[in-house]
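Collaborator request, handled under Task 6.
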Amino acid sequence: MIDEGYIKFRSDWKESAALSHAEIQELLKWRKPLYAAGLIGHYADIGIGYGNLSTRAGSDGQFIISGTQTGELSNPENQHFALVTAYDIARNTVQSTGATEASSESMTHAAIYELDPAIRAVVHVHSQELWVGLKNVVPCTDKRIGYGTPEMAQEFRRLFQQTDFSESGVAIMAGHDEGLISTGATVGEAAERMLSLYRKFCPD
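Structure tokens returned to the collaborator:
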């Protein structure tokens, strides 16, 4: 069962004008091939978007992330991104600003950025083929843990310490149907890690 699109943390969103950060152009550039591959998109039958990407920006701990329920957009613009300005994993809270509210995956992105300052970008996609084919091949989170929760934050810390996730930058979210995560020093590196898996394992 698809579990996607619902914000599970306490969101403190301050609506503002569209962001003007230069980093958004890089996010838009790499979102295009991810969307074209169907790794970011929309479940028409249940009316829920999926997939998001982010990059560090601003002060320490801040990052720009695609807005909630923007997966269906073929050509998003600056107003479809939010700046996460603060978060508290233990208290399950996220503060953001922008013309749209931050993605429901913001807590997971925040937790991954905490793992290593060298991680500058995070990509979250959906693919049934990759999710099934790569289980037990790449690091997997515990299937009992859902997305966007403090428990998922702890789970990525475990993967970083106990598996090759710190080197490969790719993981399966076993408790989040079809969900995969990739990281990188740049948005391009994070996106290309996922796109290369798509080209290798998914049929044309």
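The cover message to the collaborator said: "The chain has one domain: 10-201. The first helix runs from residue 23 to 36. Please let us know whether this matches your experimental observations."
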